[in-house]
Model the fold of this input.
Amino acid sequence: MDKYEQALKYEIFKNKEYWFLDNIIKQSNIVFDIWWHLGYFSEYCLEINQSLIIHFFEPVKESFEKAQNRINHMDIYWNNSAIMHKNGISEFFINSEKSMQSSFFNKNFLNPMWVQTNVIIQKLDEYIDNREIDRINLMKIDIEWSEFDVIENMWNSHLNMIENICIEYHILDKSFQKRLDIMIDKLNNIYRYLDIIPNKYTDKIWYILAKKQ
Done:
């Protein structure tokens, strides 16, 4: 696990995996970091812009506590929960070797060996309303196939509050391609620009960057 975590840090901080978000981060006030297990993306954002307010979400308790212990910043809202299309408790499958690849799905190329647990899930619309948030400058979503459920079920009024949204996605079969098309159609109705950005390391992972301006 230590070698894996070091490799992740190298990808993000040295090889600049999220280079295409740098200018957005510099100009942001509020960032939602949805599911980045050890908080590397939040840490990356804070290196660029120390004045950020960050809403951090991670469902696995061990990973959540590691992120809390490592990042010392007063303006972080810590959420030991996953974002889904509803509130409650859900079964969850932890990848014990590569924690970032844990998910609600136990049959995929990223998580062949899994340990089942239960996690708290929150609906994003209700979280935004409960916090009385009226604008989010950047939302980064990396939630291992749950992005389709979240975006499809999110209210357009709340999507309109998000100026920029970055979604990592994977296509495993034709059913996922269909859901991707539905998600892109919804985003195209709200955002002026939509870019598809390849991952540097594999052709199985891509990013959507949707921007209002």
Observations:
- The chain has a mean pLDDT of 87.
- Residues 12 and 18 are 7 Å apart (CA to CA).
